[in-house]
Structure prediction request, 112 residues.
Amino acid sequence: MNRDVFQAIADPTRRAILGYLASGTRNVNAISGQFPVSRMAVYKHIKLLTASGLIEVRQRGRERFCEVRPERLAEVSEWIDQLRQPWTARPDQLDVALQEAKSIRSNRKNKA
Prediction:
């Protein structure tokens, strides 16, 4: 788990892989068949997701199965909560910011 979770979820294909795995454990071949990229590209995405701790790969016989480890997403959830907190704690400030944005937009239209 030496990779950054944020780096892992920065790529849309990796987010899609996580979304696909959210419905259950899948083998690597099933995963690679779901995406319009090469099998090698899917393997690289899986490797990075594994290194970040977001998925776990287990060998069963000749097949490798991937499973989501949602507890690693707690770091992302906590970060989002920190960003959300100022706005939810003071919703009136959000209204003020929205009114200011509308006022600026209105002034620009009037000058044009």
Remarks:
- The chain has a mean pLDDT of 89.
- Residues 30 and 76 are 27 Å apart (CA to CA).
